[in-house]
Amino acid sequence: MTDTKTAFERRLRQSAAETEALLSSLLSDSRLSDEIARPAHLMAAMRHGSLNGGKRLRPFLVRESAALLGGSSGAALRIGVALECLHCYSLIHDDLPAMDDDDLRRGRPTVHKAFDEATAILAGDSLLTYAFDIIAAPETELADRLKTELVLALARAAGPGGMTGGQALDLAAEKNPPDEAGIVTLQAMKTGALLRFACEAGAIIAGSDPGHRDRLQAFGRKIGLAYQLADDLLDLTSDAGTLGKATGKDAARGKGTLVALHGMAWAEERLDTLTEEAVELLAPYGEKALTLQETARFIASRDN
Asked: What angle do CA 98, 103, 105 make, to 5 degrees?
């Protein structure tokens, strides 16, 4: 198990470095064909909000899910970077004063603090749009049919029935705390939808049959729930220096979480159960699934 964990951590770091390198290249000041210009101030804000380290977990899931099913590694890298652009847009906007109002992200000033609110909004808008540009671009070597499937799946995961809808429910929860079913729905949308897409995307890239896609979707749903549960525990037990952002804010705002509803002991037990269920879902793939199974364990045990 120690060797598996060490190999996983090395693989995660390597994937993060490769994701960062491609993302940096794509966010250069050099304009693409059919672009008129790239304003330097806007590009700097986009880089500030996305080239700031992090585990790059979502791109890693795309790449490992594709590898599991024999999908193109080059295409998976680009789709992972597209997903990371969209994820970073969501963080920039979530941090705005009108939303979660955070001054710190990954240990650095948030984009609206480093620049200004208007620039932060535009940087987020640009990253969101660019995500679909990257998928559709000819440099992403996939059949047009698969690109269309990826665009649709990502739009559904990120839109009103997914991430942004979840954010709307999260804001509403500050005034009217939801019941347990409402909390689960909110978290499956706000946090879980993009993680589910990251796993499903690998099956799409590989052109796999619906059975594989359904299984990876189910795996993504499990780790999405686990990720948010771990996040809620960290919000109570960690500190800003370790987490890279403010802690204790959910409790201060009276937001409903499963940890607040059931307590830490229940949450830790539930986290273990979700992890075991996620690992078991991939058991039919044998040793080929070891990295993804270790990812599920990592999500549950991470400290930031």
From this structure: 110
- Strand bridging mode 108-109 / 104-105: antiparallel
Contact partners, residue 197, CB within 8 Å, separation at least 6: 83, 153, 154, 157, 158, 220
3-state secondary structure 47-73: HHHHCCCCCCHHHHHHHHHHHHCCCCH
Mean pLDDT of successive 10-residue segments in the chain (304 residues)? 80 96 98 96 98 92 98 98 98 95 92 98 98 98 98 98 96 91 95 97 97 97 95 78 57 74 92 96 97 96 80
Burial tier of 105 (Cβ tally within 10 Å: 0-12, 13-18, 19+): buried
> In sequence order, what E strands does the chain have?
104-105, 108-109
Identify whether the C-beta of residue 54 lies closer than 8 Å to the C-beta of residue 106: yes
The gap from C-alpha 21 to its chain's centroid, in whole angstroms, comes to: 18
CA-derived radius of gyration, the chain: 19
The Cβ of residue 272 has, within 10 Å, a number of other Cβ atoms equal to 14
User: Which of 139, 157, 138, 21 lies closest to 87, judged by CA?
Assistant: 157
CA–CA dist 76, 125 (Å, integer): 23
The answer to whether the beta carbons of residues 186 and 166 sit under 8 Å apart is yes
